[in-house]
Amino acid sequence: VKTRRILVALPGWAVDKASARWLSRTTMEMRNVCKLTRYVPEPEQEFAFLEFEYPAGETLETLLESKGRLSESGAKSVCRDLLSCAVVNCISTPLRFRGLLDASSVFTTTAGTLSSIVPLVGLLSYKGIKACVTRLVESGADALLPPELARAIQRGNRMGVLHPGNASASDTYSVMATVLASMTNTAKQRPAAVLSNEATTKAMSQFANDLLRKALYKDPGFRLNCNEALSHPWLQAER
């Protein structure tokens, strides 16, 4: 399996040797997601550098271009995979995995068929991934990022998004925006605009529409978290 690597810089206070060892053990068990391969403290610079290795695959944009629109049953499977990964990979603040979709999601494929999807690296960190996300925001290609994350990146303040309660709602938004894009082939459009299209919503089942709307609220306080989304009737129905 081909792999890619990403180097993330974190403030020294956010990660020490003990937490790096714990993170390494944790990620080694997630071999299909990513693993910490190197920890390099730089006390003089007050940073610690962490190198992650993860499976190389297709980005969402590549997938949609090559496969086009997914069926509702296919999108449902994608949704379960993404939400389940988001729940498993919610490592407590200040270290947690974030799938910054266009920037870092990896789609693993078997014989050209979508087999599993993992929201991958990105440690939503104070450094490192910031430049990548900032470019997404500035270029207007951030349709799959939750609004609060896009605003936080622009302000340079991500503490609120890092809070575990807020982070789960942010994950749900990103996951469901991805699912909506996969069902409608609209990766570059904001979810609100897609859901306002009557022809689009009529093409989806009532349960799918209900979950999408509840998970894509602009205000994270009204949004379903990952566990709540997984319990929704649309995902509980027969596969």
TrEMBL record:
Gene3D superfamilies: Transferase(Phosphotransferase) domain 1. InterPro entries: Kinase-like_dom_sf (IPR011009). This is Protein kinase domain-containing protein. It comes from Polarella glacialis.
